[in-house]
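RECORD TYPE: inverse folding
INPUT: structure tokens
STRUCTURE:
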């Protein structure tokens, strides 16, 4: 059985996140931990960061933390030991890194349907996480 589970949340697709969390809530017991992580991308690039005022990154991180908190409280309540995290960088790298930092033994990642063009041009975060993660990955549809 898994003791620490990482669940990446795309805050632009909360419906998928809610469905995934409801499913995980029923799978996890009292001794297990669920870590929700969302990734703020783009700000870590100097060219991009130079266009934003001082404190914009901190403000964005706090806003994301608040959204994760609302999501976790509304779906998970006290049924599961949960924690929230916001990382900055490339989504698939930050997901894999956070799982390693926390000692997670499972990444449960929702998968969205992308068109072939989107997959070729953008790549798939889910695919990259599956390829690079050192722990088990559970792809949720």
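DESIGNED SEQUENCE:
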């Amino acid at each position: 059985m898994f003791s620490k589970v990482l669940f990446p949340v795309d805050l632009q697709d909360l419906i998928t996140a809610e469905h995934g969390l409801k499913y995980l809530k029923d799978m996890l017991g009292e001794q297990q931990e669920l870590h929700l992580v969302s990734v703020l991308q783009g700000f870590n690039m100097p060219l991009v960061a130079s266009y934003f005022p001082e404190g914009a990154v901190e403000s964005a991180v706090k806003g994301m933390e608040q959204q994760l908190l609302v999501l976790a409280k509304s779906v998970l309540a006290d049924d599961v030991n949960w924690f929230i995290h916001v990382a900055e960088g490339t989504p698939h790298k930050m997901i894999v890194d956070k799982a390693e930092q926390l000692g997670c033994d499972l990444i449960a990642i929702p998968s969205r349907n992308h068109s072939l063009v989107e997959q070729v041009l953008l790549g798939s975060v889910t695919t990259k996480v599956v390829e690079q993660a050192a722990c088990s990955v559970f792809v949720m549809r």
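NOTES: The two ends are 21 Å apart (CA to CA).
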